[in-house]
Each structure stands twice: as C-alpha cells, then as structure tokens.
Design a protein that fits this description.
Blueprint lengths: L2 E6 L6 H11 L4 E7 L1 H7 L7 H9 L6 E5 L5 H7 L4 E5 L14 E5 L7 H10 L1
Bound molecules: [cytidine-5'-phosphate] glycerylphosphoric acid ester (C2G).
The site of [cytidine-5'-phosphate] glycerylphosphoric acid ester has 16 residues, from strand 1, helix 1 and strand 4.
Length: about 130
C-alpha cells in the first residue's frame, strides 16, 4: 500500500483544498492529512475561522482522506513519515522547494495550487459584501 501525507490548515474548506487532496490521493492508495492545530496556526500567523476539531471533522468527511492527524509543529514531518511509513509527501507548489530535505525520507511532490481561490480571498470578499 502506497501511503501519501500532506499538511495544511484547511480553514473555510474550499475547492482548492479539495483539488489538492484529490490529486494527493492519486499519488498512492492511502492519504494522511496533518491538519494544523489552533496553537500551530498561531505559530504560522494564521487566524482560523473554524477550530481544529471542526477543520478535522470537515477534512475527515472528504472521500480522498483516510486519516487525519494533528500538525503541531514544523519539525514533525520526518517523524510522521517514519511512524506512518509514508512513501510520498505532497503539498501545493506555493511551498515549492521548502520541503526538498524530505527527499531523504520519501518522494516529495509539489502540486499546482488552484488559482483564484484562497481562504484569505473568501474572508476579504465576505468583508466587502
Ligand atoms: N491549496 C491549493 N490551492 C489553493 C489553496 C490551497 O492547492 N487555492 C493547497 C495548499 O498549497 C496546501 C493545502 O491546499 O497544500 C492547504 O492549504 P493551507 O490550508 O493554506 O495550508 P498551509 O497554510 O499552506 O499549510 O507544514 C505545512 C503547512 O501546514 C501548510
């Protein structure tokens, strides 16, 4: 079984996230999604609308997702890859190059982001409406 992992906040879940998770699953047979906790989002400088528990429930409901785990730190990726015997790390190409060091542990795949949509854009447009 080929295992894939990806990481993210996934706030105000939208079709850009779904596109990413669909293509991440296509890289293997089993997709693990590490969802950033509320505390880690503070480290990332992200203010979330939905709590970790709410975002976890939403991501778990996606047909492509097999397991959701918490993302508590930048540094946990190698441990996760080893603990879950991950074959492929996937993330959007807004992160291109940032995680190349993980090539020592698994395949690293950067997928194109879906243009025109982002959580920030949704928040800004709702504020203006
Ligand atoms: N994404 C995408 N297209 C968009 C928006 C997001 O493909 N229009 C992808 C991002 O590239 C990322 C995933 O969806 O792979 C989740 O996006 P975010 O919730 O913004 O996650 P991010 O803050 O980038 O967290 O340790 C890694 C970080 O936790 C990544």
């Amino acid at each position: 079984m080929k295992k894939v992992i990806t990481y993210g906040t996934f706030d105000l879940l939208h079709y850009g996230h779904i596109n990413l998770l669909k293509r991440a699953k296509e890289q293997g047979d089993y997709l693990i999604v590490a969802v950033s906790t509320n505390e880690f989002n503070e480290v990332k400088g992200k203010k979330c609308y939905f709590s970790y528990e709410e975002r976890k429930k939403l991501v778990e409901a996606i047909r492509y997702v097999d397991l959701v785990i918490p993302e508590n730190s930048w540094e946990q990726k190698v441990d996760d890859i080893q603990e879950y015997r991950v074959d492929t790390f996937v993330i959007g190409d807004d992160w291109k190059g940032e995680f190349d060091s993980l090539n020592d542990y698994c395949e690293v795949v950067y997928l194109n982001r879906t243009p025109e949509i982002s959580t920030t854009k949704i928040k800004n447009e709702l504020r203006l409406s």
